[in-house]
Design a protein that fits this description.
The protein is α+β, with helices and mostly antiparallel strands. It contains two helices and three strands. The protein has a domain of 63 residues. It is 25% helix and 19% strand. A hairpin with a 2-residue loop joins strand 2 and strand 3.
């Protein structure tokens, strides 16, 4: 693997991420085949993940959590999940995982 070996400063643990992806009902099949860090996140790390021909975005808190980082991200996930199927423009939501506090 090439891109998969990159842990982006310890932010992505490939073994754990691959296991999590396989355990979720996410688009595509098989393992992740690549990741690119996207710029622009002010408080969170954002990655474009590739799973074969499928591309999706992963948002995760930084290694050193700020106060309420997890609560904020979980609240955002709840809103996106609630908007699913509505006429309100929003990105598709696939899954959320709680991180240790």
């Amino acid at each position: 693997m090439t891109q998969n070996d990159k842990d982006f400063g310890g932010v992505l643990n490939w073994e754990q991420l691959q296991q999590w992806v396989q355990s979720q009902d996410l688009p595509g099949s098989g393992p992740l085949t690549g990741a690119t860090e996207l710029l622009g996140g002010s408080q969170n790390k954002i990655f474009l993940l590739e799973r074969g021909a499928v591309k999706m975005v992963l948002r995760r808190p930084p290694l050193h959590l700020r106060a309420n980082s997890n609560k904020t991200m979980l609240r955002e996930a709840q809103v996106l999940k609630a908007l699913s199927g509505s006429g309100v423009p929003h990105p598709d939501f696939f899954a959320v995982a709680k991180t240790p506090t």
